[in-house]
């Protein structure tokens, strides 16, 4: 995946997921995990970010956020 900015990267990532249903974006997940670990993020902090991140997602997408997605 060769992209030049964050917006293109998000779009290319979404397209990859849609084209490959059932597969996990392992390379991306690994990079994100390494980034958080290198920054010293700890397990206890994740529920806080999850809560507020999803509150924002629900605010923007409303009823489209089903329990299955959340
Ligand atoms: C549900 C939990 C979380 C998700 C989905 C998430 C998602 C992400 C993603 C996608 C990135 C970009 C990674 C990259 O550059 O490749 C990132 C970076 C980052 N995250 Fe998280 N994150 C979560 C939790 C947290 C927590 C708990 C903290 C700290 C309290 C945190 C702090 C950061 C910081 C400091 C960066 C780097 C930002 C930068 O490079 O400017 N994240 N996160």
TrEMBL record:
Leader sequence residues: none
Protein name: Hemoglobin-like flavoprotein
Organism the protein comes from: Neomicrococcus lactis
Molecular function GO terms recorded: heme binding; oxygen binding
